[in-house]
Amino acid sequence: MPIDWTLAIPIIVGASITFQGATGSLMGKLGGNAFSTFTIFAVGLIPGIITYLADTRGGSTVNYSAGFQSAPWFSYLGGFMGPFAVFSIVASIPKIGASLMFTVMVCAQLASAVLFATFGWIGLPKHAPTTGGIVGLCMIIVSVIIIGSSKPTAAAAVADATDLVAEDVHTVIVESAAAAKNSTISPKLQEEDDSAERGSLKPPTSPSTIGFAEYAFYLVLAAFAGASGSLQAGMNSTLTLSFNSPSFSTFLVSVIGQVPCVIAFALEYRKTPTDFKAVWRETPWWCWTGGIISYGIVMMFAYLPQHLDISVLQAALVTAQVLSAMVADHYGLWRLQVNRITVTKAAGTVLLVAGVVVLSVLN
Known about the structure:
This protein is mainly alpha-helical. It folds into two domains: 5-129 and 223-343, no CATH class; 157-199. Helix content is 75%, strand content 0%. The chain is built from 14 helices and no strands. α1 (8-31) packs across α4, α2 (33-55) packs across α12 (290-303) and α4 packs antiparallel against α9 (212-243). Pfam families: DMT_YdcZ. InterPro entries: YdcZ (IPR006750).
């Protein structure tokens, strides 16, 4: 059976989503989450304009009047779904980690996709769920529970730092003892001074924990981000069919997406003004490329369903997304907080991938 190398595209895009989330989170720490989301979609608009003008010969091949008449009202809301998903990713990763965030997101994305297809919502054709699909979805839900119950494991660097601090404390004690011989300070006062100095050299603490209510909030936010991904895929597909132009529908979605981005950033800036000079000075150059990935995701769902079965496309995308998030968490790539892969988390990931395969193949 020949290999369809088009499958490499959703794998690359799925892995790139983790990179986008990491860069967006880093930029969010420097300039604010709404500013980061606005920047991502503003950058993504650039390739959208170029592709639209090149593919439609300057817009001359698109039947705009027929498209606007036939496109249902809800299909234009896809532009709002993308910014919400990106904002959720940017805000949630620093709180619950990339691997758990994307795992919950994928679970909600697949569950909502099955639900929408079952009832034929947002213009999707009805597709009754099968036994294999239900089994696969249950496997995915269980995997999320397993991964979520895995306690975060900080990097070994914490232990190394502890050893380093212990050496520094030992040096301070020796130096203080030597200085005490030549000092007129009483032994008692010297001992208190040494004790205070040692107390100030505490080893770095483990990654900070958040309360249960905040933890639950970001889990729900991740779930809504996944559901919005399924909504956007269906809406964008409907918009593409109405205008018969994937490039124009992608461009239109990008333009509509600027509206919530600008509003959210304006509200954020009013409360906490962004220091643009500091952001420009401290943000790594690769953080500014995250918008290209958003554009790639929308274009992928506009073009690839003509070449790949949608279930295979979805399976390749989410599997690459979760695995790349797990690796990025484990090694602290792109300045993410290091969260080592545990046996429990690895078992949950294997079950997740198996559930995705079962859901895609047997549904």
